Amino acid sequence: MVKKAVCLISGGLDSCVASFIAKENGYEIYALSFHYEQRHKKELLCAKRIAKAVGAKKHITLDIDFNKIAGSSLLNASQSGIRDHDLEDIGRGIPSTYVPARNTVFLSLALAYAETIDADAIFLGVNAVDFSGYPDCRPEYIKAYQKMANLATKRGVEGRPIIVMTPLLHFTKSEIIKTGLKLKIPFENTWSCYRGKEKACGRCDSCVLRLKGFKDAGVEDPVPYDFYPAWYKT
Prior knowledge:
CATH topology: Rossmann fold
Number of strands: 5
CATH class: Alpha Beta
Shape: globular
Largest sheet: 5 strands, parallel
Strand content: 5-15%
Structural class: alpha/beta
Radius of gyration: 17 Å
Number of domains: 1
Helix content: 25-40%
């Protein structure tokens, strides 16, 4: 019997690597992305490329207008600009780019989709090591969500729970990149920048963490940037 997995693919580096890990482990991939009125819509173009590269059986993009219910500088209707932080300050507190309950909403829709197609797993690229301080990327959150999913689904009640797989949860960003290199992932098709322009800004938290990961992995990031921190080139 074919194993199926719903892979949450944002277009970013982490979700890309997680989906390729699912493929490496023999899952048939059903990709799920979200247009939630984020500033960086360019990531959705990358999500399409990643879904194709990973050989997804199907790729669905759902529309959710978070502007109507949530406040975050990551949303295009926000009056607040995205704040930049020095590398050592990232993760000290919850940043303004946090979208309230975003992963819970995304996971719940993925859970519904997974149960509908009788999938065995959901793959999510969350990371609790090199991250921006988001509360819904922590191991205790994933553990609690899994418990809820077991209670809330027909499969869970019948003893066939849908497993929330977070293969990158305890990886550093450089370890994620090295794993991606082994899997021959097209990193040039990924997008991490919060600002979503033609080139990555190189200044937002997401860009800084990504560049640090590539530097630590000893390889050049193939994505072009408008700005490179001084430490990246040294």
